């Protein structure tokens, strides 16, 4: 970094990627700033500049060693940053560049921080879980539901699932054996010596999943016109386990999706749904499997309008997926949920659902589109009649 670049950065003040520190900064304080940047998108710390942006300089000869020791001893996992020295107005400023971490960082005291605007913040539990998920260190559907217990799992549903897999049912007469089997299935998980259901276990086999996650449901609506201001045909709020949500959503759409008739063999009428049911089924399974379950307070939403059908799933696309490349790339946000749905038979063509939807729509003269809402809060699948 040259002098003019540094002057411009200081002139612009602290931001989400710039922090000012005096030379006498405490090691713990510096470690917290480093952790916050590493857990965000990286940034720079200017040592020798006070909070108001005034140049105070660095005078100690061992500043580099001090910074390296903080990064090695006060940050977990440790790393070595890029350190540069730039002289501005005869004041030595030390520029510490922190890259975006490929893991989740904490201080040696076990504290996590993230960068929000010009300050470091302690993340909420949800923010921390999302951070681990983004770094591919944790699948959210594997996390324990602390408020749930073994009694929250419907063993009959587990046995029906195992029957579909051709496996023997679990032995619910032997509690230790039952817990061990459910742990092997990732339905239960151990935390600090206690056993709790996982998020995926509750969603797939819970007695009442919405008791723990009220917004992990599906909101359905069918309308006379092409917007919400038109008359309502039918609305329903679906709840239950993953398989129940899928089946009830398909049932709702069969009731409300327009149909057309044609003579079959010139003798009898044949009713056909306006949109291919298999494509709709794939769309619902895709939404249930891949929605961002770290987002609470919003449900999967399905709308039937006069000229189109929409399936809206909470959250943006994971990692490097884009609307353009997702037809040809596979990334499963919720590995455990995907595994359960595969076992149930809903994802026998795993990784090819969107391609299958597109092909079914092309064969039936249906427009098919994928999009993110402008604020990237929802992923939207849209089916529509061509020319309508």
Keywords summarizing the entry:
388 residues, alpha+beta, Methyltransferase, Cobalt-precorrin-4 Transmethylase, Domain 2, Heat Shock Protein 90, 6-stranded mixed sheet, 4-stranded mixed sheet
Descriptive overview:
This protein is an alpha+beta fold. It folds into three domains: 3-123, Schlafen, AAA domain (Methyltransferase, Cobalt-precorrin-4 Transmethylase, Domain 2, 2-Layer Sandwich); 140-211, no CATH class; 218-385, 2-Layer Sandwich (Heat Shock Protein 90). It has helices spanning 3-12, 27-39, 63-73, 125-134, 155-164, 175-184, 199-205, 209-212, 242-256, 277-290, 335-344, 353-363; strands at 18-21, 43-47, 75-76, 82-88, 91-98, 106-107, 114-116, 119-121, 188-191, 194-197, 218-223, 232-238, 259-264, 268-273, 300-304, 308-314, 366-372, 378-385. A six-stranded mixed β-sheet has the order 12-11-15-16-18-17, with helices on one face. It has a four-stranded mixed β-sheet with strand order 1-2-5-4, with helices on both faces. It has a two-stranded antiparallel ribbon with strand order 3-6. A hairpin with a 5-residue loop joins β17 (366-372) and β18 (378-385). α2 (27-39) crosses α3, α9 runs antiparallel to α10 (277-290) and α10 runs antiparallel to α12 (353-363). The chain is globular, with a radius of gyration of 27 Å.
């Amino acid at each position: 970094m040259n002098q003019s670049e540094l002057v411009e950065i200081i002139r612009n003040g602290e931001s989400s990627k710039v922090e000012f520190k005096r030379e006498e900064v405490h090691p713990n304080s510096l470690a917290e700033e480093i952790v916050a940047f590493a857990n965000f998108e990286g940034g720079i710390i200017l040592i020798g500049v006070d909070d108001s942006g005034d140049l105070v300089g660095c005078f100690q000869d061992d500043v580099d060693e001090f910074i390296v020791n903080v990064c090695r001893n006060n940050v977990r996992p440790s790393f070595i940053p890029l350190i540069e020295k730039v002289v501005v107005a005869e004041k030595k400023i030390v520029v510490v560049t922190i890259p975006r971490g490929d893991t989740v960082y904490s201080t040696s005291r076990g504290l996590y921080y993230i960068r929000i605007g010009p300050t470091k913040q302690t993340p909420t539990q949800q923010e921390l879980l999302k951070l681990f998920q983004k770094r591919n260190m944790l699948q959210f559907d594997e996390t324990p539901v602390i408020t749930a217990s073994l009694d929250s799992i419907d063993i009959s549903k587990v046995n029906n699932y195992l029957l579909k897999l051709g496996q023997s049912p679990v032995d619910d007469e032997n509690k230790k054996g039952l817990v061990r089997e459910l742990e092997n299935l990732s339905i239960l998980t151990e935390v600090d010596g206690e056993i709790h259901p996982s998020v995926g276990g509750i969603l797939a086999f819970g007695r009442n999943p919405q008791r723990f996650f009220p917004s992990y449901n599906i909101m359905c609506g069918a309308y006379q016109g092409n917007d919400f201001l038109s008359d309502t045909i039918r609305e329903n709020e679906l709840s239950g386990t993953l398989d129940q949500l899928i089946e009830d959503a398909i049932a709702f759409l069969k009731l409300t999706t327009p149909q057309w008739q044609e003579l079959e063999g010139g003798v009898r009428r044949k009713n056909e749904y306006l949109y291919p049911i298999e494509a709709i089924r794939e769309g619902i399974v895709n939404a249930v499997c891949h929605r961002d379950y770290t987002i609470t307070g919003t449900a999967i939403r399905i709308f039937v309008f006069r000229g189109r059908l929409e399936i809206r799933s909470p959250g943006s696309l994971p990692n490097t997926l884009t609307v353009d490349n997702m037809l040809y790339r596979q990334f499963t946000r919720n590995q455990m949920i995907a595994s359960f749905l595969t076992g149930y038979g809903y994802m026998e063509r795993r990784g090819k659902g969107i391609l299958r939807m597109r092909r079914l729509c092309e064969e039936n003269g249906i427009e098919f589109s994928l999009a993110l809402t402008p604020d990237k809060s929802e992923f939207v699948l849209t089916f529509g009649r061509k020319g309508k």
